[in-house]
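Input sequence (242 aa), recorded before submission:
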Amino acid sequence: MTFTPPVALSDEEIAAVRSWVIHEDAHVIAFNKPAGLSSQGGRIKAHTLDDLLWAFARSNGKRPDLVHRLDRDTSGVILAAKTKPAAGFLGKALQMRRFRKTYLALVASAPEPRCGTIDAPLARQEIGRESYMRVVAFDAPGAQGSQSRYRTLAESEDGALVELEPLTGRMHQLRVHMAHIGRPLIGDVRYGGALTVAGRAAPRLMLHAARLTFPHPEGGSTTVEAPSPADFADLRHAMGLL
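Predicted structure, token format:
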């Protein structure tokens, strides 16, 4: 009997998702997700990365499962487990905060001080059909402890390139924390980021998941890196951030 996956993919979609693979072994597969692609769900009637994983389905109907998510407009490293044991192992490791995620972001001016830790609780807020996160007091209803590290890598008259590391995993955490210190990410319409910089329009939210280090199911740790996409690299260059 021939296995038919529940999501029908075009040849172009299959070729695209295969071209995004940046690491694969017997247990995991990592992708350099393009901006504009939802990880899972969402209201947009288009295939998500989760749907596209059917391109890797085996004859027994099993396919990789995403271990974590990235915002739709964020590019970069995202990890999927190829087996049920690997999914369980990595899910527990994620809960225990054993994943180390490093992002690159563009902001309109360098943070002051140039590096530091942001410790600001976040709470979810529903506005219409949209979900937002906002900074709240430690004892506010729904408050979730949230910490992020930031470090300025380069700066110019047009802005700065910063390295970001979320120490917790809240929705929109890096975006809200950077807005909280007065440095919203360029292109972040939701949280007040600049929409033009260096004489050009920001093509999207300028946030890229550049590196992921995680404990491997076979032991030790594995680091996967994703090169910056052209839109991020081009704007960085236009801003003089070499």
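Checked by second reader. The helical segments are 11-19, 49-52, 84-95, 173-180, 230-238.
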